[in-house]
Amino acid sequence: MGRKGASQSLILFFLFAFLACVKGHPNYKDALAKSILFFQGQRSGKLPVNQEIAWRSDSGLTDGSEASVDLQGGYYDGGDNVKFNFPMAFTTTMLSWSAIEYAKRLGPQLEPTRVAIRWATDYLLKCSNASPGKLYVGVGEPNADHKCWQRPEDMTTPRSVFSVSSDKPGSDVAAETAAALAAASMVFRKVDPAYSKLLLETSKKVWKFAIDYRGSYSDSLGPAVCPFYCSYSGYKDELLWGAAWLFTATKDTSYIDFLKSLGADDKSDIFSWDNKYAGARVLLSKQALINKAIPFEQFNKQAEEFMCSILPNLPSTTTEYTPGGLMYKLDNVNLQYVTSITFLLTTYAKYMASSRHTFTCGSTLVTPSAIRNLAKKQVDYILGENPLKMSYMVGYGERFPNKVHHRGSSMPSTKSHSTTMGCEDGFEPYFKSSSPNPNVLVGAIVGGPNKGDAFSDDRNDYSQSESATYINAAIVGPLAYLAGSNKY
């Protein structure tokens, strides 16, 4: 054999050895692309010509008209047709954090991520700037909407407009909106400086509103947001989160002073659209670990306490795991907590690795690889490495949920069924049908299995079969981390 032949054989040997090493790992790049594509299926407003989820059409084109303002755009949060700004703003913050923290690892998906963020921020800017002294926080009558099974393109339910103001405060939703706009301003800083400046200026204005008029939007708006997206954890966590993001975006030390004055010592073993304590602490821990900034050491300590409450098989853990190894926090749409916490795991592991940092949970030494491995286990479970061998991301893998609790996905599109369908027309035969949804909501991650790893794929069981923007937004970062890494 000549030198060239020997060289080719050696290359083939290492190629096959490499493939053998990675065999069994999910296709993270495919899952990443699909997780971002999902947001097109949730769009409200006038859809662009390059819309890839082709079974969706324009909807909500008169949103805001009740208040004589333009509130077109934004996202429907899950399988319904209401725009709830509280979870939508959190979704935007998490997508932006992914784009900031994992920009290089996102690769060709960075621009689609920016597009998904901008679809939300264009709407949030309207909500923040439409009327002086008001922040619009939702469109659609939730109680009426939940009595219907109707495509968003056909909506006949009231498109009521809800807002907070000085006499109806909403520090939680305002501070979350400020966080979303501040984070997004960093995403667009280099690619669109003028837009970035507008986002940051608006963030500061909304932030001032949040701290000047203290109160929970749940108390101000009642049944317009409860029990759907009540601020169960109060608004102090959003103030912490908002200040953390504004400091990150501006490096203005006045936000550090505010963080100190807030006295947010609440312990938390969860992270979600409602409870932001852990997220704020991990975000701020970067200043302690990477920049060695002393004022942030307390937040790093709290971030480590959070990690100790999540890691399995430790005396400090307060987190349950299913027999198959899935983190289990709550029965209702559990995967929302799994993806959000997994984002914090990969991100904190990244900070630890960069600073060569370790810590202890009691007598147990915790390394970046221990946290990274747990994060990978959660992502892999979602993508099909579980007792049912089922992917919980729609359209990914050979077996995935096909009866998603989602109005548009479960009914024929307006292109195949042009006749308008009324409020209750979708219940029979579509909602109650045992057939798969006619439209595939590609990339959607559903609520997931129960604590025994069982999953019914039942459209009627929203806790297991409904998808949501905030579930997907949180997994973009971990998928990018795994897709762009040779370290598993």
CATH level-two architecture? Alpha/alpha barrel
Helical stretch tally? 19
Helix content: 40-55%
Strand arrangement within the widest β-sheet reads 1-2-3
Mean pLDDT score: 94
What's the number of extended β-strand segments? 7
Largest sheet, described in full? 3 strands, antiparallel
Low-confidence stretches: 1-23
CATH topology: Glycosyltransferase
Catalytic activity: Endohydrolysis of (1->4)-beta-D-glucosidic linkages in cellulose, lichenin and cereal beta-D-glucans
Protein name: Endoglucanase
GO molecular function: cellulase activity
Domain Glycoside hydrolase family: 28-478
Give a nutshell description of this structure.
This protein has 488 residues and is mainly α. The protein has helices at residues 3-22, 28-37, 85-101, 103-106, 110-129, 142-145, 171-187, 193-212, 217-221, 236-250, 254-262, 277-289, 297-310, 335-355, 368-382, 407-410, 427-431, 462-465, 469-483, and strands at 83-84, 134-139, 161-165, 320-321, 327-328, 359-361, 364-366. Strand 4 and strand 5 (327-328) form a beta hairpin.
